[in-house]
Description:
Blueprint: H1 7-12, H2 17-20, H3 24-36, E1 44-48, H4 54-62, E2 67-72, H5 75-85, E3 92-96, E4 109-113, H6 121-133, E5 140-146, H7 153-166, H8 171-184, H9 190-199, E6 203-211, E7 214-220
Parallel strand pairs: 1-2, 1-4, 2-3, 4-5
Antiparallel strand pairs: 5-7, 6-7
Amino acid sequence: MDAFSDPDAVARYADNPPRMVPGYADMQRMAMLLLAERVPAKAKVLVLGAGGGLELKVFTESQPEWSFDGVDPSAAMLELARQTLGNLADRTRLHEGLIDNAPEGPFDGAVCILTLHFIERAERARTLQEVRRRLRPGAPFIVAHFSIPQDERDLWLSRYAAFATASGIDRVQAESAKTGIADHLPILSPEEDEALLREAGFTGVSLFYAGFTFRGWVCSA
């Protein structure tokens, strides 16, 4: 996650997800709608990996009565989130750090988008447990991140690079991103991701989004 401390990388952040993640805007909107199915009108929502503020902006614009606590380890990315939110920031409290730096809650729902793939398996399992502990019983939790079959890892990462290139990312940059992801991200298979959610105590784990190398699930605390 060192790139998220690089000012140039932070400045470019908002431009990249829509070009690298298939259906990125729709996935965010689906996450909002899945929360809205079950949270109260004045919901209190936890956003893990809130740096950049892209999903927070979608949620705050769509749900004017919700309030948010956002957590991210990068101070630079949290500052970008503040800039992204602008005058909507008054409904969001931002916290620098990991899940342990999040308020205890209880929260009516939680979201973690494009974040868990940065976290090693054992720490990911603990993080999921800590998210669940902060949720009200039955509260929805929505996750989306890299998740690919491990026996076809190279193939799927090549498809990731091809999609980025087709979306306007420079081919050299896309291939460099592919190499960095292959070397450094502890990506799990969809089966492993679902198993970790269940092991953390979540129920009703259901796939709601699949876009090439990315998967998204909704479940209940």
